[in-house]
């Protein structure tokens, strides 16, 4: 057995976090106003330094059986710094929400406004309407704590959002023209790719502007960070749809409850909702291939389950089965405003296929299938308590980093500790369900579904 009495970690690679002084080296520092804030106690360790880091991988196999990543990646820890780079009296903030809706958007906006106002004394805080196009198409909306006081109780985004509309030069020109020197961008992976371009253009122009991304996606498909805000609310809401499907299926002869949940490229919501529910008989996610007909297929499994229990509940993520749904030539290349391939309705297709199968193989037997798509109900609800707290920590982490002069980063928890991650890393990373992981094994043990490997 390895001697573990003394452990040292070597070969750590601290990822570079851009600071505005990297390209503007004549700027003045200011003492953090938290020094005089009566609500904070400035004890030793309150202010963080560049030496405070968060390891991306905190699990190490001392036996050497499994090779740990070399070098170990690390990121700067999020939190307040003793010296800041912005004079709060000259700060002018822009906050924008982009892409689809997600529980917690209004909470993040609220906490950015209140945090900037109360912690740092910033008074010029503006909301950008309608996503990226709002920078050059609409007048900014002046925000204050009283105005946003109850926003965390509301679903959607009060600032409004949209997809597309990304015109780099128009956006950066508008940021300059309005005199914004802090830009907070809230959105998913496509939005973060846009944030990378804005940050790079700001740096290219050598502007005294900090750009930060706050990752948002109900699907929890943002890489590197532990989870994205809104995800836990989505799983909680998905339970209601699954419960309804279970009641409908159980109340019918040969009843099937079919629920389609969000998850274009990842099946995290479907996976966690299945584990939480325990009423799901089969869970289909984008990370696994499945087929309908033949030995080991979905139809064979459902027939056995109906014969055994008289009912079944089927949960499918929206991105599952896209490769087996028939497409027209135009549908093969059709894209939405964000540049994503338009997905066909796997739920509607499955419902049709299941009805055809039963009428073909069991023409004289009763059969009922109820299809529930709670997508917009889940996206539009306010964040639950857990996500609300998380949104507050994200907002405050972003504020501390920006005020300290960092730029081109995303804030988020890594192994439970909040860190600053270069936005380009986050824009490229994906958080896929690992079907070799124990969580997917739990799903299959709960549902007893096949692995859909053809004989």
Automatic annotation (TrEMBL):
Stated regulation of activity: Allosterically activated by AMP.
Location relative to the cell: Cytoplasm
Keyword Magnesium: yes
One MF annotation (Gene Ontology) recorded for this entry: 6-phosphofructokinase activity
EC numbers for this chain: 2.7.1.11
Annotated keywords: Allosteric enzyme, ATP-binding, Cytoplasm, Glycolysis, Kinase, Magnesium, Metal-binding, Nucleotide-binding, Transferase
Gene3D superfamilies in the record: 3.40.50.450
Primary localization class, coarse: cytoplasm
GO BP term, pick one: fructose 6-phosphate metabolic process
Metabolic or biological pathway, per its Swiss-Prot or TrEMBL entry: Carbohydrate degradation; glycolysis; D-glyceraldehyde 3-phosphate and glycerone phosphate from D-glucose: step 3/4
Cofactor: Mg(2+)
GO cellular component terms, semicolon-separated: cytoplasm
Catalysed reactions listed for this entry: beta-D-fructose 6-phosphate + ATP = beta-D-fructose 1,6-bisphosphate + ADP + H(+)
Domain of life: Eukaryota
Enzyme type, top EC level: transferase
Entries under NCBIfam families matching the protein: PRK06830.1
Family listed: Belongs to the phosphofructokinase type A (PFKA) family. PPi-dependent PFK group II subfamily. Atypical ATP-dependent clade 'X' sub-subfamily.
Role this protein plays: Catalyzes the phosphorylation of D-fructose 6-phosphate to fructose 1,6-bisphosphate by ATP, the first committing step of glycolysis.
Subunit record text: Homotetramer.
Protein name: ATP-dependent 6-phosphofructokinase
Biological source species: Nicotiana tabacum
């Amino acid at each position: 057995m390895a001697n573990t009495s003394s452990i040292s970690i070597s070969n750590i690679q601290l990822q570079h976090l851009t600071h505005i002084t990297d390209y503007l080296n004549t700027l003045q520092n200011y003492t953090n106003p938290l020094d005089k804030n009566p609500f904070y106690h400035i004890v030793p360790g309150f202010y963080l330094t560049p030496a405070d880091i968060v390891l991306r991988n905190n699990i190490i196999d001392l036996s050497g059986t499994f090779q740990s990543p070399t070098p170990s990646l690390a990121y700067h820890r999020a939190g307040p710094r003793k010296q800041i780079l912005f004079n709060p009296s000259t700060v002018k903030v822009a906050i924008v929400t982009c892409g689809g809706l997600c529980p917690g958007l209004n909470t993040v906006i609220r906490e950015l406004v209140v945090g900037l106002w109360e912690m740092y004394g910033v008074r010029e805080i503006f909301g950008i309407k309608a996503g990226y196009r709002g920078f050059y198409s609409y007048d900014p909306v002046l925000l204050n704590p009283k105005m946003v006081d109850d926003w965390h109780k509301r679903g959607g985004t009060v600032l409004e959002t949209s997809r597309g509309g990304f015109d780099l030069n128009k956006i950066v020109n508008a940021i300059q023209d309005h005199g914004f020197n802090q830009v907070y961008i809230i959105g998913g992976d496509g939005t973060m790719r846009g944030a990378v371009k804005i940050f790079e253009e700001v740096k290219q122009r050598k502007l005294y502007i900090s750009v930060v991304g706050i990752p948002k996606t109900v699907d929890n498909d943002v890489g590197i960070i532990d989870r994205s805000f809104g995800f836990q609310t989505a799983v909680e809401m998905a339970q209601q749809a699954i419960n309804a499907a279970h009641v409908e299926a159980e109340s019918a002869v040969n009843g099937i409850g079919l629920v389609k949940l969000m998850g274009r490229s990842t099946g995290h919501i479907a996976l966690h909702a299945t584990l939480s529910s325990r009423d799901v008989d089969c869970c289909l996610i984008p990370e696994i291939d499945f087929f309908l007909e033949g030995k080991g297929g979905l139809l064979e499994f459902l027939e056995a389950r109906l014969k055994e229990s008289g009912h079944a509940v089927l949960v499918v993520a929206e991105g599952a089965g896209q490769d087996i749904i028939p497409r027209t030539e135009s549908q093969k290349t059709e894209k939405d405003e964000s540049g994503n391939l338009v997905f066909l309705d796997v739920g509607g297709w499955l419902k049709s296929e299941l009805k055809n199968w039963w009428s073909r193989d069991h023409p004289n037997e009763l059969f009922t299938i109820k299809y529930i798509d709670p997508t917009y109900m889940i996206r539009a609800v306010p964040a639950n308590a857990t996500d609300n707290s998380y949104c507050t920590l994200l907002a405050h982490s972003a504020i501390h980093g920006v005020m300290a002069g960092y730029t081109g980063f995303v804030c988020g928890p890594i192994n439970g500790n909040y860190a600053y991650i270069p936005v380009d890393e986050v824009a490229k990373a994906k958080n896929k369900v690992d079907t070799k992981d124990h969580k997917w094994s739990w799903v299959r043990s709960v549902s007893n579904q096949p692995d859909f490997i053809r004989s």
